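User: tokens in, sequence out, please.
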């Protein structure tokens, strides 16, 4: 096989994530040669815009998937939480390396958790999911949008533009960053985004040589977690306008999936969980979505769409 062309976004985090995946691939297949191809996506070009206004997280993968579909790339590496719940039918998620820390981190000026923030503190996040969960616990907080890569967000915090920011633990760890004032938010209480901490390797369905090559990268427990969380998102029919979260955990041979749908102001949150066999991961996600919709989540989804 000739050199593999591997697509990714051009941010420092995306490039580092791709390097980590290719290091693992090289360990498994030392003879494989690879070339990283950075691609500037619509989401990168709209760096200061609210993504929900321009099509949501699919903006971070559109140009990469087009290059993959047209044969300019052989595979692509994504943060799973950037991927929409539906892929083009010609593409598949060929491998999920082992999941990293799925939690969110509160990084503040003084350290400590949410309870330690001063009254009416300014917390920066552009995630509707994070916004709703922050306000549910601290209605006094002022939530302001923030965009840019991880380093940019930390710099803005250091310039005291905000009292705190919320970022993904996995992103900081992959970049080798460990702020002294970072406080992990427990995933049962502050539910992470679907796929947070998971990297996904995307390829063409018909490209058998590449699929065979990637098989060794796939980690079954992570695939089960990914399938359950993405099935939950898909069967909700949720959009980028809706605060939705899910977290799957495998323990004692069973998969436990916690899911949440919230109103934008955090005043109403509908949560639930299911437990079952790992092999039925996608069905568990569907079951939880149907349960939450029956208990009122459908109304929250409808309101979000109307907005």
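Assistant: Sequence out:
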């Amino acid at each position: 096989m000739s050199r593999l062309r591997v697509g990714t976004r051009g941010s420092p985090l995306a490039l580092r994530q791709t390097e980590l995946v290719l290091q693992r691939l090289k360990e498994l297949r030392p003879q494989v040669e690879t070339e990283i191809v950075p691609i500037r996506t619509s989401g990168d070009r709209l760096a200061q815009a609210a993504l929900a206004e321009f099509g949501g997280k699919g903006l971070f993968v559109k140009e990469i998937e087009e290059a993959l579909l047209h044969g300019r790339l052989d595979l692509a590496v994504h943060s799973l939480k950037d991927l929409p719940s539906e892929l083009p039918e010609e593409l598949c998620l060929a491998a999920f390396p082992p999941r990293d820390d799925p939690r969110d981190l509160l990084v503040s000026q003084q350290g400590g958790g949410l309870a330690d923030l001063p009254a009416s503190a300014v917390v920066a996040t552009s995630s509707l999911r994070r916004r709703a969960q922050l306000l549910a616990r601290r209605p006094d907080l002022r939530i302001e949008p923030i965009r840019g890569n991880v380093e940019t967000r930390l710099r803005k915090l250091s310039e005291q533009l905000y009292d705190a920011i919320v970022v993904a633990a996995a992103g900081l760890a992959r970049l080798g960053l460990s702020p002294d004032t970072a406080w992990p938010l427990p995933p049962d209480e502050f539910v992470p985004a679907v796929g947070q901490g998971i990297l996904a390797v995307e390829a063409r369905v018909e490209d058998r040589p590449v699929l065979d090559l990637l098989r060794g990268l796939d980690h079954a427990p992570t695939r089960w977690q990914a399938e359950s969380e993405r099935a939950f998102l898909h069967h909700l029919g949720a959009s980028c306008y809706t605060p939705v979260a899910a977290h799957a955990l495998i323990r004692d041979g069973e998969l436990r999936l916690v899911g949440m749908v919230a109103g934008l102001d955090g005043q109403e949150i509908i949560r639930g969980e299911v437990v079952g066999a790992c092999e039925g991961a996608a069905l568990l996600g569907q079951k939880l979505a149907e349960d939450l919709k029956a208990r009122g989540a459908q109304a929250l989804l409808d309101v979000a769409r109307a907005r």
